[in-house]
Amino acid sequence: MRALLWIIAIFALAAGVAMLAGANEGYVLLVMPPWRAQASLNLVIVAAVVGFLASYFLLRLIARTLDLPGRVGAFRARRQHEKAARAMKDGLRALYEGRFTDAIKSAKVAYASGGDAPEAALIAARAADGVGDERRYREWMDKAAASDEGRIAQLLTGAELALGRGDVDEAARSLDALRKRTKGHLGTSALRLALEVARRRHRWDEIIDLVGRLSANKAINADEAGGLLREARLLRLKELVGDPDKMAEFWRGLGKEDLADRLFVMQALPVLAKVGKAAIARKTVERLLEIEWNSELARCYVLCSGEGDEAKDALSRAERWLTAHPDDPGLLYSLGRQCMVAQIWGKAQSYLETSAKLMPRADVSFAIAELMDALERPADAKAHYRSAALAMQS
């Protein structure tokens, strides 16, 4: 239907032009002495239109012919770019699929076709690291760093791959270079890598700083941040094992939020007890148990019960708790241990045996075995030592 309409329109236009030409009786007189020429006005109009169109197309042909080398160059560049893009895509797919040899081959093509693209070099470097080819890894990393635009990505990739190999020192060097280049403004990925380096180096102060920066960027949630800060504080405590006074000073300098972390307090008590400083945590433990009862924390109470009158006061406090929590195995264990220290053998045996009935555990069996040794009952002690060993293996 559309073709028919076009045909009708063309015939109508031709009929209109013919009618106008028939009605036009004008002529054009050209004089160039000693010659004269006369032509129909219709012929002159047609000749002018045809001449204009012929001149236009001739000029277009000349312009396109002169532009041909540039068009050929642009076509070749486009083909080269398309080839590099395909090779880059193939290299990424092979890298993610674990086909590292194929990834290196595709990245090599992309690098050669894409004007020494640092992205292709980094794909090849990752693949070389995946196959453990140190020489090619270094070669491709150097190529990635050759361009200024790829330097930051190269340093970040180097730090990540070094951590994957367990080379913390090289990862730290890459991150230090990255800090200098970015003037200390690290992105989220770099901050996470720096945090992992700090964790493996046991740099508790760096961990606290990096966790704060990641939290400010909303890169980690509150639970993850809390766990990392807990780890940092414990690392610091363990560093101070050789200096009990500094350990006590560090503990007293902790904030209320730090000491409100039950898990941290439970993990810190054995460290403090190792150097005889657990008594400084007693008030903290008591406050936490008064706020919300926790059987595992109550089990640790014996570690901070102290000595002499302080130990008697702690035992009295624990027995008052027993009124409200008579069947708590953790509290019963702690009471049993406290009574052993106070040499109240009968109560110690009763508390420990009740705790063992409520929740059999290796530490309870071991405590009963030690109690039997103190009471000079070697056969019973041996049986409980065996029970403790079996519980530890299960």
What are the defining features of this structure?
single chain; 394 residues; mainly alpha; Serine Threonine Protein Phosphatase 5, Tetratricopeptide repeat; two-stranded antiparallel sheet; 21 helices
Explained architecture:
- The radius of gyration is 43 Å and the shape is elongated.
- It has helices at residues 2-23, 41-66, 68-96, 100-113, 118-130, 134-146, 151-165, 168-182, 188-200, 204-216, 222-239, 244-252, 256-259, 262-274, 282-291, 295-299, 308-324, 329-341, 345-358, 362-374, 378-393; strands spanning 27-32, 35-40.
- With 394 residues, it is mainly α.
- It has a two-stranded antiparallel ribbon.
- Helices cover 77% and strands 3% of the residues.
- It has a domain at 147-235: Serine Threonine Protein Phosphatase 5, Tetratricopeptide repeat.
- The longest helix has 29 residues, at 68-96.
Question: Could you give a short description of this structure?
Answer:
It contains 21 helices and 2 strands.
Strand content: under 5%
Please tell me what the overall shape is: elongated
N/C terminus separation = 88 Å
| CATH class label of the domain at 147-235 | Mainly Alpha
Please give the number of β-strands: 2
Instruction: Tell me about the largest β-sheet.
Output: 2 strands, antiparallel
Order of helices and strands: HEEHHHHHHHHHHHHHHHHHHHH
Q: What is the helical fraction, as a range of percent?
A: over 70%
Which spans of ≥5 residues are poorly predicted at pLDDT below 50? none
Backbone structural class = mainly alpha
